[in-house]
Amino acid sequence: MSTFHSTRSSNEELTSKQAIRKGIADDGGLFVTDSLGETKIDIADLAGKTYQQIALRVLSVLLDDYSEEELKQCIDEAYGSQWSDERITPVKPLGSDFVMELFNGPTCAFKDVALQILPRLMARTNEEDGDGEKIMIVTATSGDTGKAALAGFADAPGTGITVFYPQGRVSRVQELQMTTQKGSNVHVCAVEGNFDDAQSAVKEIFADKDLAERLQREHKVRLSSANSINVGRLVPQVVYYFSAYAQLLEQQVINVGDPVDFVVPTGNFGDVLAGYYAKMLGLPVRQLVVASDKNNVLFDFLTTGTYNRQRPFYETISPSMDILISSNLERMLYYMSERDPRMITYLMNDLNEWGAYEVPPELLREIRKVFATGWADEDQVREMIADCWNNNHYVIDPHTACGYFVMQQMPADPQVPRVLLSTASPYKFPRVVNEALGLDSDGTDFECMDELSRKSGTPIPPMLRDLENAEVRFRDCVEVPGMNQYVEECADKL
Ligand SMILES: *Cc1c(COP(=O)(O)O)cnc(C)c1O
């Protein structure tokens, strides 16, 4: 059976269920398994398989302490009628390239792919210690994770969820999506600060042993994370890379074994890391293109080998990519460094102490064989939204537009199809999209949606349009130092 340990040490050995329940390792590292890549997924028989069938294959390999029956149940519940496309992550032509839509889930965000299944995986982790311990998810969101996590965990048995978002720094639609969330186990709270402030405070809350002990004793509550550092969130994202390949086979764009490139709008490095896992599992991925917005810390790292978080933080029109610390990069470094936990410990200590680290040139060379990179500023993002519409009659959101820009900058190889991952519905950012397309953007977000729908001839996802008249349930706002107190109050109500 596969065992999981921290990227920073290999002392502890956990099953995937334990790793999912725990979220993050005690030493602050992320859980990884050295079995990754030992068992390959057979790509010869991908064509014709449903998303759910592919998911079962992939998850059986990566989460091998779950029974097939457990995984089947989780998959069927997570990828059912709440998706507006039965292919779940449909691949569509985009000029001479392709786009894979990851936003057809219940909250119109790519994070639904993982967060629809994570609560179900988590619910099946607690048989051994059936002592009624509850799990409370605490998460900081720059926009999309929050709603997708809320939707996944709302009224999920044995769980609660508390979501923090930076006040005034998410779109009106995103804020309403969260503050109108139904469910008896959910809490939503704004924080006076930016996303990194909130994210750092959440990490401190997780590291607070006294708090953990008190929550356990007084409330039988254990904290866990729904951020993409959780194995149970990362692994389901590997599936859609295989699904993309299956769809390209079916569309006779490629033959079995042909290489494919993926272009990935990147923030926390979860999405693109899943592509790297897919490659290790045998998917013929040639290049993974890391596309950043103006917060181009990953671009700098992948071009120079120095990761430096000490830089200005920009709040851009692609808020889910406004990140200075891409947590999941640590996993990539682990695998790329020949699985050297000591090196990872050094690098992460440097990051904590100096705000920067540098990898050896040989390691950078290896990384660059797989990962290409580029970034787009906000003017380029706006331009690309218009370009993509004019050239392909396809509306993209500002996150996807970062990827689109980077893809346009790269020389195309007719032998290698390129798949751009589209991470959000344009209707989540209707004002920015309308501005870019030269459409009326004066009214409310909802008027912008109506205008975009009229002019583009595309339907508004009902869950977004209906927000206008949904009841707001949460108006809490705290300062960063008040977040742990808030978490305790939520645990008390669980
Ligand atoms: C989260 C998110 C991203 C970034 O994904 P990572 O896995 O954090 O790299 C990009 N676009 C959108 C819309 C997102 O919500």
Q: Can you give a write-up of this model?
A:
- It is an enzyme of class 4 (lyase).
- Pfam families: PALP (PF00291), Thr_synth_N (PF14821).
- Residues 4-79 form the Threonine synthase N-terminal domain.
- GO terms for molecular function: threonine synthase activity.
- Its cofactor is pyridoxal 5'-phosphate.
- This protein has 494 residues and is α/β, with parallel strands linked by helices.
- It folds into two domains: 91-106 and 234-425, Rossmann fold, CATH 3.40.50.1100; 117-227 and 461-494, Rossmann fold.
- 44% of the residues lie in helices and 15% in strands.
- The chain contains 21 helices and 15 strands.
- It has helices at residues 16-22, 51-62, 68-78, 112-115, 118-123, 144-153, 172-179, 195-207, 209-219, 231-250, 270-280, 297-304, 329-336, 341-354, 361-370, 378-392, 398-409, 430-437, 445-456, 462-465, 483-493, and strands spanning 4-6, 31-33, 91-94, 97-101, 134-140, 159-166, 186-192, 221-224, 260-265, 285-292, 306-308, 356-358, 371-375, 418-422, 476-479.
- The chain has a six-stranded mixed sheet with strand order 3-4-14-9-10-13, with helices on both faces. A five-stranded parallel sheet has the order 8-5-6-7-15, sandwiched between helices. It has a two-stranded antiparallel ribbon with strand order 1-2.
- Strand 5, helix 6 and strand 6 (159-166) form a beta-alpha-beta unit.
- The longest helix is centred in the middle third of the chain and has 20 residues, at 231-250.
- It is globular, with a radius of gyration of 21 Å.
- The two termini are 34 Å apart.
- The structure holds pyridoxal-5'-phosphate.
- Residues 109-111, 144, 228, 265-271, 320-321, 399, 423-424 line the site of pyridoxal-5'-phosphate (PLP).
